[in-house]
Amino acid sequence: MAIIETENLTKVYRTTRKDPGLRGSVKALFRPQIVDKLAVDRISFHVEPGEMVGYIGVNGAGKSTTIKMLTGILVPTSGQVRILGRDPHRQRVDNARQIGVVFGQRTQLWWDLALIESLNLIARIYEVDPARYKQLLDQFSETLELGELLRMPIRNMSLGQKMRAELAAALIHEPLVVYLDEPTIGLDLIVKERIREFIRQQNRDKGTTVILTTHDLGDIEELCQRVIIIDNGRLIYDGPITTIKARFGKYREITFETCQPVYQAIALPEGAHIVTNGYSPEDRKLVLRFDRTLTTASRVAHDVMDQVEVNDFSLTEPDLSSIVKQIYNGALLEETTS
Ligand SMILES: Nc1ncnc2c1ncn2[C@@H]1O[C@H](COP(=O)(O)OP(=O)(O)O)[C@@H](O)[C@H]1O
Ligand SMILES: [Mg+2]
Fold first, then answer.
1. How far is Cα 83 from Cα 70, in angstroms, rounded to an integer?
2. What residue ranges line ligand 1, CB within 6 angstroms?
3. Domain range for residue 313?
4. Residue 49 lies inside a defined structural domain of this protein
5. Residues around the ion ligand 2 (C-beta < 5 A)
6. What is the pTM of this model?
7. Which ligand is nearest the CA of 34, by number?
């Protein structure tokens, strides 16, 4: 049985608009201008126990609104949502025991309490067995490197520390389903990697079902086999990440930082070309695009470094908004008809 089911899930936000200034305020008082925003538009999908699903879309696509309906924070305008067969809003207490939630942009912990005090409280509220609690605390402390954080109040933590604390707090009652809304936003690579490892471990060891929203394709590639792409509230793709990668990972970009300004032409392997608009030797940044089916990143890097002295180079992942655009242009049609 599916653990998460949505059927034509829809959310319309109703807001009132006001013209600027006092006149606008007075007018709005007597004749409010109502504006409806369709944030989530008839979305249907099922998630099986133990799956890790990437729920992705550009800013404003409707990701957080969906998560809020799945967790029971928001009531759908129409359509259905069932978590373990329950209505998450109407059966909020029962639902809460089974789920864990992290919102990347805001903290849910007690601001002035030390992390350990928050964790103790949460363990009490959820009636976590004391022996089990001790075990989990040790485990989490190790993977998330909580050590010195345990005694620290949340208010004193950096963004990366806070996020590790949030994850521990959201998972200490061992929920069956975890919703992570942009958990790695604004974090550096080392913290990101640590958080990904923790999520992977929970999923592998306990079969925790994970819904991960992000606009960072790197997170998804490392954790999820399945992705759901939404745009403007609509579901535009639900399927394996491998299809997305094969289709859209065709072109890659490499940015080279050269030691000296480059004035000469550079010979490149077939399938690679320079895309830097009006390369200015002074900024010493050279951007190349190549077709992965014709050549490889290491081949391109090798050829360039043979001809130019290079300080550093980096590979850019395909970006989400260009993928979304290509899906609208029919880039996935062949896949579904063949
Ligand atoms: N409380 C709200 N009232 C009105 N509009 C909202 C509210 N929350 C979100 N929206 C709008 O709904 C759309 C989807 O928002 P959201 O679900 O937060 O997107 P995402 O998480 O993908 O960035 C956006 O256009 C946003 O401006
Ligand atoms: Mg959001």
1. 7
2. 13, 15, 37, 39, 57, 59-65
3. 250-317
4. yes
5. 63-64
6. 0.80
7. 1
